[in-house]
């Protein structure tokens, strides 16, 4: 019989993880031998997920908030055997589930396990993995201020707008970006790397290539930009970067950044300050159960 490991953070989601663990056990019992694991603190989800790879499990279900999901991904990425992955979001933010179109309702997220999967890209920055977005600059601190409603409405762009607003008040930095097909060097207010092509996701919402196109989608907001938020909004929605001198857009498989000052990196919501940083993509790296296509 196939083997599933259910990794639960019992403290997330108003401590309902254990209840969902029981639901999962019932649902999966006909197909899998289910191994329920509860985390007791930081690092446990990584360790359990790693163990699932080494013991050739067929499925890992991550039950918890973004922190738990992120720890789980750390354990799975770049292992020789990688089980399929399902996420049952129990956090307050659940960026991961939003970015990958996993139902935000825990019961619905459980329902879809066993249905469709898709291969998703995983990003890597130095020794760490990301699934969604990296923001570089003074701005990342401001990102915590983005409301959940904003995130639901406009996804990754919520970060961008908050970032742009915050950038107005902050110093710029000299950034040097080298990528596979070019380079950028100059005074910058904000640099964003998105694994998902948010622009395309507005234009061709059901296209599956969005999360597994093998590229990072990069946006440099240059210093001295006329920070007309409405204009930048329009630009981003239409994807017309070519016509906007204040935003440089490129896509790349490998990106390296350096700066002349210490900078913060916000990686999927966690802060890190480690430069130079090298970003790569692990294309179609994890097989994920996901929700209905948005149409
Ligand atoms: N039993 C535990 N008690 C306390 N902390 C734990 C326990 N198990 C895991 N953790 C830690 O809690 C961190 C945050 O958990 P997680 O993101 O799942 O939930 P959350 O804080 O409710 O989510 P969100 O931030 O989206 O609201 C994890 O990164 C993990 O290190």
Automatic annotation (TrEMBL):
The keyword Signal does not apply. GO terms for cellular component: plasma membrane. The keyword Ribonucleoprotein does not apply. GO terms for biological process: phospholipid biosynthetic process. InterPro entries: ATP-NAD_kinase_N (IPR017438), Diacylglycerol/lipid_kinase (IPR005218), Diacylglycerol_kinase_cat_dom (IPR001206), Lipid_Phosphate_FormReg (IPR050187), NAD/diacylglycerol_kinase_sf (IPR016064), YegS/DAGK_C (IPR045540). Keywords: ATP-binding, Kinase, Lipid biosynthesis, Lipid metabolism, Magnesium, Metal-binding, Nucleotide-binding, Phospholipid biosynthesis, Phospholipid metabolism, Transferase. GO terms for molecular function: ATP binding; ATP-dependent diacylglycerol kinase activity; metal ion binding. Belongs to the diacylglycerol/lipid kinase family. Pfam families: DAGK_cat, YegS_C. Its cofactor is Mg(2+). It comes from the Bacteria. This is DAGKc domain-containing protein. SUPFAM superfamilies: NAD kinase/diacylglycerol kinase-like (SSF111331). Residues 1-129 form the DAGKc domain.
């Amino acid at each position: 019989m196939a083997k599933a490991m259910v990794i639960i953070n019992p403290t997330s989601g108003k401590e309902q993880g254990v209840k969902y663990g029981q639901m999962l056990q019932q649902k999966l019992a006909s197909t899998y031998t289910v191994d329920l694991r509860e985390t007791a603190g930081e690092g446990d989800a990584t360790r359990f997920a790693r163990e699932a790879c080494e013991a050739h499990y067929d499925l890992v279900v991550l039950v918890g908030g973004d922190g738990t999901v992120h720890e789980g991904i750390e354990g799975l990425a770049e292992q020789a055997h990688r089980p399929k992955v399902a996420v049952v979001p129990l956090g307050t933010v659940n960026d991961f589930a939003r970015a990958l179109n996993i139902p935000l309702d825990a019961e619905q997220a459980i329902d879809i396990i066993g249905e469709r999967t898709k291969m998703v890209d995983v990003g890597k920055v130095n020794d760490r993995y990301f699934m969604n977005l990296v923001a570089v600059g003074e701005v990342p601190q401001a990102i915590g201020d983005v409301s959940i409603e904003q995130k639901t409405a406009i996804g990754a762009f919520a970060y961008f707008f908050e970032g742009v607003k915050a950038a107005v008040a902050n110093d710029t930095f000299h950034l040097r970006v080298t990528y596979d097909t070019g380079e950028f060097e100059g005074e910058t207010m904000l640099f964003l790397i998105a694994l998902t092509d948010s622009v395309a996701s507005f234009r061709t919402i059901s296209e599956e290539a969005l999360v597994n196109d093998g590229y990072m989608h990069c946006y440099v907001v240059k210093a001295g930009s006329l920070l007309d938020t409405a204009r930048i909004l329009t630009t981003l929605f239409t994807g017309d970067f070519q016509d906007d001198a204040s935003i440089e857009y490129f896509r790349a498989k490998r990106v390296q950044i350096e700066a002349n000052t210490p900078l913060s990196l916000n990686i999927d919501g966690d802060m890190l300050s480690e430069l130079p940083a090298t970003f790569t993509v692990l294309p179609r790296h994890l097989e994920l159960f996901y929700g209905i296509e948005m149409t």
